Amino acid sequence: MSDCIFCKIVAGQIPASKVYEDSDFLAFRDIAPKADTHLLLIPKRHIVNLNDINAADEALLGRLLLTIPNIAAAEGLAGYRTITNTGVEGGQEVFHMHFHILGGDQLPGF
Ligand code: 5GP
Ligand code: ZN
């Protein structure tokens, strides 16, 4: 997606503070952090949100979830919150699926 800001980050066309990268995923620091540590984990492939996945993505999504505790541990997070917003009504502003990883201070109950 040529007009997608996260695809541009994947392509190296705009800078980001990367904390993790492999062949399928990239994690970087949110530009406007809502917690002491606020990371975004994305698939490199442009997927809009959870409404855009199907059975063929099962393994990819499993691997995505498995990377989260590793990234959190590398950031020194014992506990953290993981959020993905889906659609305008769900508060999604960037339409390339991403998982927020928030932590580093005590988060309020949800
Ligand atoms: P959403 O509301 O779509 O779930 O979250 C989008 C997130 O992307 C927001 O927390 C916002 O601060 C972050 N964000 C938007 N543009 C950029 C950017 O260019 N670089 C980085 N690192 N984060 C961004
Ligand atoms: Zn994209």
From TrEMBL:
A motif (Histidine triad motif) lies at residues 96-100. The active site is at H98. It comes from Parathalassolituus penaei. It holds the Pfam family DcpS_C. Gene3D superfamilies: HIT-like (3.30.428.10). This is Histidine triad nucleotide-binding protein. Residues 5-110 form the HIT domain. GO terms for molecular function: catalytic activity.
